[in-house]
Amino acid sequence: MKLQASGKFKYVEDEGFAIIARGYALNGYGYVGYSDADDYGVSVCLPSWAVRWAESRPRVRLLGYMERLWDNHHDVLALHKTELGTPSRIL
Fold first, then answer.
1. Same domain, 54 and 90
2. Is there a single domain that holds both residue 2 and residue 36?
3. What percent of the chain has pLDDT over 90?
4. 20: exposed, middle or buried (Cβ count in 10 Å: 0-12, 13-18, 19+)
5. 69 Cβ partners below 8 Å, 6+ apart?
6. 37 and 52 share one domain
7. pLDDT above 90: residue 62
8. Residue 10 burial (C-beta neighbours within 10 Å; 0-12, 13-18, 19+)
9. Are 55 and 14 in a shared domain?
10. Which of 27, 34, 61, 70 has the greatest number of C-beta atoms within 10 Å?
11. Number of structural domains found in the chain
12. Is residue 85 located within the same domain as residue 55?
């Protein structure tokens, strides 16, 4: 959010980013597709939203979450697909 707002990176036009910002403010996740691609775009989410999403997936174990790990502005989730009957998260 801060990088787009600062003008350092312009991921999408201001109108598209306003859509992302509204979703982010409402539920912790915002997305808008690129105008020239049907299934590709920009998303922004709270770490808590990403962790909840990962924990809600069947047979997925969250191994780690690192903020700004990739190119100093992409967060990274490390996930592991588990076998049937294996707990979905480490307690």
1. yes
2. yes
3. 56
4. buried
5. 75, 76
6. no
7. yes
8. exposed
9. no
10. 61
11. 2
12. yes
pLDDT value for 90: 53
Percent composition of the chain: helix, strand, coil (DSSP 3-state, to 5): 30, 30, 35
Q: Are 86 and 60 part of one and the same domain? A: yes
Can you name the residues that pair with 81 across neighbouring β-strands?
A: 60
In this prediction the pTM is 0.77
Q: Assess whether 30 and 56 both reside in one domain.
A: no
Dump pLDDT digits (tens) for 16-54: 999 999 999 999 999 999 888 778 999 999 999 999 999
How many helices (DSSP H) and strands (DSSP E) are in the chain?
3, 4
Asked whether the CA dihedral 3, 6, 10, 15 is positive or negative, the reply is positive
* Tokens of residue 30, six digits: 């915002």
Which domain covers residue 37, as residue numbers?
1-45
Do 50 and 90 sit in the same domain of this protein?
Answer: yes
